[in-house]
Specification:
Radius of gyration: 23 Å
Distance between the termini: 27 Å
Structural class: alpha/beta
């Protein structure tokens, strides 16, 4: 990382304190309190440098992640608002694998806490460590996953942290499962492995996804929201194009095939067994 790099992409932020003080001035002005302004102007002039310093260096919207280990931090701005997790052993200069997690439609919104409802962010929030840099973006209300924006987010992370570019993985559930297939088809040369859960995609992209060394899908046989056949079609498309892909079907599971999948340590071990350098 360049010595002058800003690791968290920190941007100036207008803090609640600034907003409170500004509102006080507006209220006084609206009530014609010119005498109050005359009396307190010297104090306001002395406070102005402090307010500017708070505004320019508060960075409340994008906290620095350097030095934060073993916990998720919220980062607002850039291609996607997202949660960022650095493993305890992360040190600049020592490459670490990356896991990109894409949530489902039910977690869309404007509050990053929603991302912690399922999957790796939920496990991390409960104190379970992971050997990855985990990136968990938030889709906006009514929005979906756009490969271009997700690619830009990964570009941002790679520019800020020491990433093992041979071990970048993506997984997601439901809408995130669709996003996983779509992103892999768009940039297959980037990923060492993908793990879409109860998702689907365009079988015509199977030829592109052949470029991903590890492909493993998961689905519930009783899923009434996203039919299991959608995962089967994608896995078959990759195989028909000459690639290797696996499908795990839970006979008794409905739409929630992600809880069991993400709770199984074998998923993460399987991901780590795949590297683009080894292929």
């Amino acid at each position: 990382m360049p010595p002058n790099a800003n690791p968290a992409g920190c941007q100036p932020s207008w803090t609640p304190t600034c907003d409170f003080l500004l509102q006080k001035l507006v209220n006084r002005a609206q009530h014609g309190a010119s005498t109050w302004l005359d009396t307190h102007m010297p104090l306001l002039v002395r406070m102005l440098p402090i307010l500017l310093l708070v505004m320019l260096t508060g960075c409340g919207s994008m906290p620095t992640a350097e030095g934060v280990r073993g916990q998720q931090v919220e980062r607002v701005g850039g291609p996607h608002d997202h949660l960022l997790y650095l493993p305890d052993g992360y040190e600049p200069g020592s490459p670490v694998p990356v896991l990109l997690f894409l949530h489902g439609a039910g977690e869309r919104g404007s509050e990053l806490a929603r991302v912690k409802v399922h999957g790796p962010p939920k496990l991390l929030d409960a104190g379970e460590p992971m050997p990855f840099i985990v990136i968990s973006p938030l889709a906006p209300p009514g929005g979906g996953w756009e490969p271009g924006k997700l690619t830009a987010l990964l570009d941002q992370i790679e520019s800020e942290f020491t990433v093992d570019r041979s071990r970048i993985y993506v997984t997601g559930l439901s809408m995130g499962g669709f996003g996983t297939w779509a992103l892999a088809a768009e940039t297959p040369d980037r990923f060492a492995a993908i793990a879409p859960i109860c998702g689907g995609g365009d079988p015509r992209t199977g030829g592109a996804i052949v470029g991903v060394p590890g492909v493993r899908a998961f689905h519930g046989a009783r899923d009434s929201v996203v039919p299991e056949r959608l995962s089967r079609e994608m896995v078959a498309a990759v195989r028909d194009a000459g690639g290797t892909a696996r499908l795990t079907v839970y006979p008794e599971a409905g739409h929630d095939s992600w809880t069991e999948t993400y709770a199984n340590a074998d998923l993460y071990a399987w991901l780590l067994r795949h590297s683009r350098e080894a292929e």
